[in-house]
């Protein structure tokens, strides 16, 4: 009788177990019976990555303000509670989405700069430009990487309280490293000029890599944005020429109403 009673309780209790995770076919907070690593429930990394992948697409398409946790939960087929469990908040999710690939690009840039410095000869401006561009171009080779390129371009239109911290955390050390290398390779320019040209290079590659499709509309059948060599050669030659250009004169005299005499 005792055994029968236990079985009845188990049967009665069964439909309630993990009810949240089965709601509308969505996964909820994982059980923590077994652990695959220190302090981490087994299988968490896969679900976590799926949430990040889904959020990356939503943020790239809709921006930070336009994306809701419900959008992400529906796309990832998980509950909103599970997203909060892993990331704490919408901003926490956005932060991890951006830094996940942003840090990869930054680390790749640092490694490429280290390789240039170990070569034994001072790197040329073109070498520096290529080393800066290649990590982002390599990431663009995958569908997920192309999504991140759009997200990264969109970040520059987000409010400062959303964008500044993330951009600095991901890129500031590596960008400063490349700026210093360009200052050494461009002695005819002031520090201000180098910073301007560095910023213009970033703007050029963000636009070129973010799949706006503007170039295909302007030159249908002429350009091939699926050819990484074509993209790299085009933007490298353009940026290198801009970097090597003479220091600017007094641009103020070219503005309306500024002419003297």
From TrEMBL:
GO MF annotations in UniProt: DNA-binding transcription factor activity; transcription cis-regulatory region binding
Q: Which UniProt keyword terms apply here?
A: DNA-binding
Q: Where do the segments described as Disordered lie? A: 1-46
Report domain HTH tetR-type positions: 45-105
- Which InterPro entries has this protein been placed in? DNA-bd_HTH_TetR-type_CS, Homeodomain-like_sf, HTH-type_TetR-like_transc_reg, HTH_TetR, PsrA_TetR_C, Tet_transcr_reg_TetR-rel_C_sf
Task: Name the DNA-binding stretches.
Answer: 68-87
The UniProt regions of compositional bias labelled Basic residues, in chain numbering, are: 24-37
Q: Which SUPFAM superfamilies match?
A: Homeodomain-like (SSF46689), Tetracyclin repressor-like, C-terminal domain (SSF48498)
According to UniProt, the name of this protein is TetR family transcriptional regulator
Source organism = Azospirillum thiophilum
């Amino acid at each position: 009788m005792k055994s029968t009673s236990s079985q009845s309780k188990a049967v009665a209790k069964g439909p309630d177990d993990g009810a949240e995770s089965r709601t509308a076919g969505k996964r909820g907070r994982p059980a923590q019976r077994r652990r695959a690593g220190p302090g981490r429930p087994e299988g968490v990394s896969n679900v976590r990555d799926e949430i990040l992948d889904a959020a990356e697409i939503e943020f790239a398409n809709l921006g930070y303000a336009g994306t809701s946790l419900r959008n992400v939960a529906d796309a990832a087929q998980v509950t909103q509670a599970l997203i909060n469990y892993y990331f704490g908040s919408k901003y926490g999710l956005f932060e991890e989405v951006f830094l996940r690939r942003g840090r990869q690009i930054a680390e790749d840039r640092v490694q490429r700069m280290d390789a240039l410095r170990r070569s034994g000869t001072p790197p040329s401006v073109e070498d520096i430009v290529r080393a800066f561009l290649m990590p982002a171009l390599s990431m663009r080779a995958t569908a997920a990487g192309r999504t991140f390129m759009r997200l990264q371009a969109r970040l520059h239109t987000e409010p400062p309280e959303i964008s500044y911290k993330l951009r600095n955390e991901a890129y500031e050390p590596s960008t400063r490293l490349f700026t210093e290398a360009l200052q050494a390779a461009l002695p005819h320019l002031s520090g201000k000029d180098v910073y301007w040209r560095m910023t213009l290079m970033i703007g050029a590659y963000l636009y070129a890599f973010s799949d706006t499709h503007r170039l295909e509309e302007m030159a249908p059948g002429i350009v091939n944005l699926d050819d990484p060599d074509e993209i790299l050669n085009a933007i490298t030659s353009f940026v290198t020429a801009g970097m090597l250009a003479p220091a600017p004169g007094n641009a103020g005299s070219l503005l309306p109403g500024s002419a003297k005499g």
